[in-house]
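Reminder to self: tokens first, then the designed residues, so the page reads top to bottom the way the pipeline ran.
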């Protein structure tokens, strides 16, 4: 529909709402007062625009409206209608094809030719015609869509979210569920085999006044992850944050005794599981232009790896690489992706290590103790919170100082 100059309220489109091919139109009746005001503002008192007797001596026969006065309504189009408030007009090419006169009705037409998610830029095709559909001006505009910060939201570090925690029934995942629930978030405890532990944890959180549900799914299977997200939407709402803690068991095994299936088991749960869950979470995060994803890395993937843990280390290194790629691609959509890499932590995964090895690790740690699951959970909770709103693509090592970078 055409817009008129009497409409004073600018609309605002988010970048993701704009589509290539979108169009808008506005109309304006040119008056003598417009010409006088433009001349006073710019200092362009050329008699061709203001003196009828002078203009009659030219081939135009009567005063013509300043070309840039007609073109100035491109700014109105960009700032008020397509894309609207918060848009910055950065460049313009113009052809002035025919003159405009007082009494003409300008129709300014804009169509989105291209959009660049990486730069949040639009290229608009612009055309200005008169009431006889005669083309007066044609060109191409480049527009930057600026991010508008919500001050209340950016200052609120306690915004409640719905957080999915894979592998959330025990260890670091369970500790994370407890911490997030205490901070007012709704938690979804995903489990694969440990139904009893997951349900007991959810009940514990609810009894303490929090909000939690448990949902079974094998995150390595795409169809089960889709069903997991469907259940969560139905029972508790859309997911705002994802914490991927799911992992398969690890044991010391020389490379010569390692088979590909063992490596693949780690990759399926940790890498493919992250892939499936992120894929399912992204559409809603992109729509709302917010979201936090925390993937579980490991200190074992930094520097010199521990011996006989090739399967585990390879999967963790791949997860860290995935996180960095996602952070780059989806940062412009307001989605943050980070990695938490624990050092040796008191979980079930330490069962295969002899006490002597644990003692040695404690003595090599500046804080002289191994991590507890709650130490890791507190860092995850921070990355999920608005307090970490400007942190993405980072690997945070929670290791008591074992590695310092």
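Designed residues (405 positions):
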């Amino acid at each position: 529909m055409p817009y008129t100059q009497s409409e004073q309220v600018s609309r605002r489109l988010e970048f993701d709402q704009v589509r290539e091919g979108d169009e808008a139109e506005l109309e304006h009746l040119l008056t003598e007062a417009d010409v006088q005001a433009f001349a006073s503002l710019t200092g362009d008192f050329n008699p061709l625009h203001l003196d009828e007797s002078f203009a009659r001596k030219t081939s135009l026969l009567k005063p013509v409206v300043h070309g840039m006065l007609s073109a100035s309504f491109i700014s109105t189009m960009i700032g008020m209608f397509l894309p609207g408030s918060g848009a910055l007009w950065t460049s313009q090419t113009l052809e002035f094809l025919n003159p405009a006169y007082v009494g003409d009705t300008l129709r300014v037409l804009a169509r989105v030719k291209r959009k660049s998610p990486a730069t949040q830029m639009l290229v608009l095709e612009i055309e200005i015609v008169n009431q006889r559909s005669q083309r007066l001006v044609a060109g191409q505009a480049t527009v930057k869509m600026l991010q508008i910060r919500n001050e209340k939201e950016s200052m609120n570090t306690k915004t409640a979210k719905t957080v999915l925690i894979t592998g959330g029934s025990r260890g670091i995942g369970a500790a994370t569920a407890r911490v997030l629930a205490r901070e007012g978030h709704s938690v979804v405890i995903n489990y694969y085999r440990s139904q009893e532990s997951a349900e007991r944890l959810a009940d514990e959180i609810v009894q303490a006044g929090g909000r939690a549900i448990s949902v079974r799914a094998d995150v390595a299977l795409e169809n089960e992850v889709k069903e997991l997200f469907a259940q969560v939407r139905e029972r508790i709402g859309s997911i705002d944050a994802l914490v991927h803690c799911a992992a398969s068991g690890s044991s010391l095994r020389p490379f010569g005794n390692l088979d590909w299936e063992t490596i693949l088991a780690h990759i399926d749960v940790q890498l493919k599981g992250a892939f499936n869950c992120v894929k399912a979470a992204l559409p809603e995060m992109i729509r709302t232009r917010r979201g936090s994803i925390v993937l579980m890395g490991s200190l074992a993937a930094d520097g010199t790896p521990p011996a006989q843990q090739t399967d585990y280390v390879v999967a963790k290194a791949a997860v860290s690489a995935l996180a960095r790629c996602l952070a780059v691609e989806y940062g412009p959509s307001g989605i943050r992706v980070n990695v938490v890499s624990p050092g040796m932590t008191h979980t079930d995964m330490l069962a295969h290590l002899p006490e002597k090895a644990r003692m040695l690790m404690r003595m090599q740690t500046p804080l002289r103790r191994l991590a507890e699951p709650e130490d890791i959970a507190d860092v995850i909770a921070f990355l999920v919170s608005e307090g970490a709103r400007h942190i993405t693509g980072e690997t945070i090592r929670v290791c008591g100082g074992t590695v310092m970078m």
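The two ends are 58 Å apart (CA to CA).
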